[in-house]
Amino acid sequence: MINIARNQIRMGLKDAKFLFMAMLVLIAFVVNGFIYSGSYHIAREDYERSQRKTEQDLEASSSSLLDVTNYMQTAVRPPSPLSFIADGGSAQLPNSWQVNAFMYRNPENKARSNEQLPIVIPLDWSFIIGTLMSLLTILISYEAVSGEKRDGTLRLLLSNPVSRMQLFLGKYLGLLSVLLITLATCAAVSITILITQGALPLTADVAASIGWALLLACLCLSFFLLLSIAVSSLVVTPAIGLVILIIAWILAVAAVPGAARMVAEQSVKIPAIYEVTREIEARTEAMQRGMPLNSLNWDGNPFAEGMRNRTEYCRRRIAIIEEAWDKMIYEQIRQARLINFLSYVSPTGLINSALQDICETGISGFEKTMDLVGRYQDQLHDFTLAVDKLDAESPHLVYTWGDGTDPGVYSTKPVDLSTIPRIQALWRSSGLSASQAVPWLQLILLAAANLQMAVMAFFALLRYDPR
After folding, report:
1. Torsion over CA: 133, 138, 144, 147 (sign)
2. Which tens digits make up the pLDDT trace of 333-390?
3. Residues in the chain with pLDDT values less than 70
4. How far apart are the C-alpha atoms of 71 and 54, rounded to whole Å?
5. Rounded to whole angstroms, how far apart are CA atoms 288 and 268?
6. C-alpha to C-alpha distance for 428 and 430, rounded to whole angstroms
7. For the segment 57-78, what is each residue's pLDDT rounded down to a tens digit?
8. Which long-range contacts does 237-242 make (Cβ < 8 Å, 24+ apart)?
9. pTM assigned to the model
10. 393 Cβ partners below 8 Å, 6+ apart?
11. Domain segments of the chain: what residues?
């Protein structure tokens, strides 16, 4: 078995197809390192500029609690240094929210992208491994068994005291070693570029995330390798096996994700903006009919009779607006989650979803960031209530009216700038930049798929006629 593995490694490393594809993969990893190191620095610069502006605006507003809590600050998510592993469509997903003590809204992408250019596939590890390296796996292994039969070496090999199990393990371990050598070398080059460019911090969390990513990559490549051995053990000539494997590769890489998107878009309908606006108007009108008439009155006196009703009306109105827009966003999240789940049929879909969960990019990062922004809004609101209680002259009517607030309804005294909650504390405590979250479901499914394919490949080889 060891001799078979060694021979397979030697033959694989000398194969012209392997050399060509390995060079292409290496170039892709090099480009990956330079692209994401540059984009990380740009995103980091934009994030720090946004934080400086927010700090300046908070300082300017600190002369009044009312001004501080109504200031709509831009909460920009810090860029992830792990996006080179799984970009997750960061160019399309929002990375900033407008937030104050009463609401968060208007999620948008603050990246410096050219909206006139067509969207291109990001050259992250997820794409390189799931597309280029899976194709490399097929090209170096499609004739692992049928090619030896064509050359007459399979019969000669089996005439020696070599069992089918030894033959299977020798070929599998030999070809897998070739793939792992290629993956380790190329990944090391990419990581070295990112570190030397100052775009990848050397922390335990980052190392753990990279380790899990490489493990998942090994399982993905192992699946394609076992599939190739199985097909090669079922066909008469290598050419037929190659055609079958290329079709399977296209299905895994393109057809399954495309079909998953179509099914999800039909299953989960996202409301249009005009539908959300119409719902807000309808619910607001219904709410108004159940409120006292003086709820809408404002004569400039926060101590006037009926101001409690106005406070309740404004709070309900804001809640209706927030719920309607949140509902639309949650439907978008549900649709994206369904796309990922349906893509589990493909090993490339599994690894893409798993890597996004590890790196907290894509829909995983978006969902967690939205949750953190909501928590930050709650912190600002609690801060407003706490500070307002200390003002004996305040009417203590903490509410907002759309984009502003009626003057004098709660404290207008100065605020200690250092006591105002900052969203940066939530970013740091949440570990958004480098998570050690392990996608156990995808990991188990990939391992199970490997086990199933290994059984199929072995029994196909066991029944293969070497003559």
Report:
1. negative
2. 899 899 988 998 899 999 999 999 888 888 888 888 888 999 999 999 999 999 999 9
3. 111-121, 154, 158, 294, 402-404, 431-437, 464-467
4. 10
5. 32
6. 6
7. 999 999 999 889 999 999 888 8
8. 237/146, 237/150, 238/142, 238/143, 238/146, 238/147, 238/150, 240/146, 241/142, 241/143, 241/146, 242/138, 242/142, 242/143
9. 0.87
10. 411
11. 2-462
According to DSSP, the residues that pair with 75 across neighbouring strands are 97
Cα distance between residue 467 and residue 462, in whole Å: 14
Contact by Cβ (8 Å): 237, 326:
no
Q: Which amino acid is at 171?
A: K
24 burial class (0-12, 13-18, 19+ CB within 10 angstroms)? middle
For residue 437, the tally of other CB atoms under 10 A from its CB is 15
